[in-house]
Amino acid sequence: ARILVVGGAGVERESVEAVRASITDEVNVKDIDYVTAGSDVVKRSAKPNFQRLGPRLGSLMQPTHEAVRALTDDDIERYRQNGSLALEVDGETVELGPDDLLVQSEGIEGWLVGSEGGVTVALDTEVTPELRAEGLAREAVSRIQNLRKEAGLDVTDRIAVRYDGTDATTDALDEHAAYVRNETLALRFERAPESDLEEPGEHGAQAAAQGAVGSFDLGDGEHLTLRVRRMGEEKKAAQQR
Q1: Whole-angstrom distance, CA of residue 200 vs CA of residue 173
Q2: CA distance 24 to 133
Q3: Is the dihedral of CA 4, 8, 9, 13 positive or negative?
Q4: Is the pTM of this model over 0.85?
Q5: Same structural domain for residues 147 and 184?
Q6: What is the distance between the alpha carbons of residues 102 and 228, in angstroms, rounded to a whole number?
Q7: Which of 70, 193, 228, 232 sits 20 to 30 Å CA-CA off 152?
Q8: Which residues of 14-52 are buried (b: 16+ CB within 10 A; e: fewer)?
Q9: pLDDT tens per residue, the chain (241 residues)?
Q10: C-alpha–C-alpha distance, residues 81 and 99, integer Å
């Protein structure tokens, strides 16, 4: 997925670049692009603030409303930048100041748009097969880390992970095995029949030796079963099998 930051008043490319790494990490997107106001992805519209303008304009309110509806994206962007706009309405000049217009941003299909504090961003909502696989791998990492805690393992313990699940999930883990190993300190990461991933019945130190097992619904029909063991204990288990 990617994010578009729409340039405008108070939004400079250099400011976006300075926090690019933080944004991509926090919101899990691959890239951030900077586009100018008037981009085909984001359409702006404006409407009068009737509460402010009604008492002031009186009979000019309705024709002013029509004039505002006819504003182009460029007109609206100038208003956002300058905080003012002059309209010719029925032979008179109507001066609009800050808060006289309510500006909204809308995205085209496939984009989710939001604005706050003068900043407009658009998020690409298309989920490609590649993004879906990456998401499943991240879900697996999260579940493995939780199972580490459940098994009482130290954060520095190297582990062995065995897994099974629905086809799309296991395919995703096969594809992103290196990423999962790196994130979880898994020296072994391999598929196993679900019959080998039975829930251990012990607690305390014995449970830590056996490891932890979890079965998870990942949504959209995807399922994942995991067994997590400390690396040394996995070797013992392998010798017993």
Answers
A1: 23
A2: 18
A3: positive
A4: no
A5: yes
A6: 54
A7: 193
A8: eebeeeeeeebeeeeeeebebeebbbeebebebebeeee
A9: 788 787 665 567 787 788 888 888 787 788 888 776 656 667 778 999 999 999 999 999 999 999 999 998 778 878 877 889 999 999 999 999 989 999 887 766 777 877 776 677 888 888 889 989 999 999 999 999 999 999 899 989 999 999 999 999 999 999 999 999 999 999 999 998 876 776 554 444 444 456 799 999 999 999 999 999 998 765 555 555 5
A10: 13
Shared domain for 151 and 45, answered yes or no, is no
Quick one: 9 and 100 in the same domain?
yes
Q: Quick one: 24 and 71 in the same domain?
A: yes
Domain span at residue 224 reads 129-240
- What three-state secondary structure class fits 191? strand
- What tokens were used for 23? 């944004």
Same domain, 149 and 86: no
Token pair of 228, please? 């997590």
- The bridge status of strand 159-165 relative to strand 222-230 is antiparallel
Residues 70 and 51 in one domain: yes
Backbone angles phi, psi at 212, to 5 degrees: -135, 145
- Residue 53's alpha-carbon distances to 2, 56, 58, 85, 135, in angstroms, are 39, 5, 8, 14, 48
Q: Do the bridges between strand 222-230 and strand 212-219 make them parallel or antiparallel, or are there none, so unpaired?
A: antiparallel
Length of the chain: 241
